[in-house]
Amino acid sequence: xxxxxxxxxxxxxxxxxxxxxxxxxxxxxxxxxxxxxxxxxxxxxxxxxxxxxxxxxxxxxxxxxxxxxxxxxxxxxxxxxxxxxxxxxxxxxxxxxxxxxxxxxxxxxxxxxxxxxxxxxxxxxxxxxxxxxxxxxxxxxxxxxxxxxxxxxxxxxxxxxxxxxxxxxxxxxxxxxxxxxxxxxxxxxxxxxxxxxxxxxxxxxxxxxxxxxxxxxxxxxxxxxxxxxxxxxxxxxxxxxxxxxxxxxxxxxxxxxxxxxxxxxxxxxxxxxxxxxxxxxxxxxxxxxxxxxxxxxxxxxxxxxxxxxxxxxxxxxxxxxxxxxxxxxxxxxxxxxxxxxxxxx
Length: 345
Hints:
The protein is α+β, with helices and mostly antiparallel strands. The chain contains twelve helices and six strands. It has helices at 3-20, 64-67, 85-91, 107-124, 141-164, 166-184, 198-203, 226-262, 276-291, 297-314, 317-322, 324-342; strands spanning 68-76, 81-83, 97-99, 127-130, 133-137, 206-213. α8 runs antiparallel to α12.
């Protein structure tokens, strides 16, 4: 297929998607997601001029306790910073810390990076519940735990390797600081006492994952008041609304970036197209499909909309790189979907 035919096919596919969504009931000004219906205010009865504003209901097929599980991951890591008493005294306006093991080409930073991968994995595959606790879609529990275990094992392996080669890593870093000290005339910069022992550094690293059920009003062995039950139920409803909002906000971020980038005409400053612009939207749609715990069909539909739209352009990235008309079309369509999603926030 020549360049012109491929371009025509790409635009036709995108227009087909746009046409199929032209009569979508969700507009950019859609009402905010809520779990309660509008109540009539005093005086509304019999008032022909009053138009009740529709509020989209939070559809709940299952309780959160059936759809999700809570996870808390706690990490402890060695911090490669050491307070420099002498420099802090000379500075006189705060503390000065020495950055030990600077750069990425050392086992300390590589180990910390493995621990960061665990954190990122958890955040990418869950939705927030509360500080330090996230909510996992139960349908993906086994895949999630398998991936998490691999990352935790890799982090543990990195710690063991660091401890085994600790003396060599310290010697290399002392040599690095020694060279800096020589060039700056600060002989006390490299200090062996700044470093913990291998055993001490081993104890500074730990990681633990705990899984907990989502609470329900029936979890208590002793009776609780109706007020407390209502409070807990409200928390559960708020958590589900927050989870849905999180899903939408995660999709909106790369979409808005794409619209801004594609709006820059080819040839102008900032117009260079990179594949990651589309790849990021493909990736976030896939992740949000896994983490979504909302029964709301509109949320699911918006995820599917994004998946359908970006799949067209994922297979035609060269067009986005070279064709202004394709860029304009993509920017318009993505922005239209941004409008629909923004109404769900």
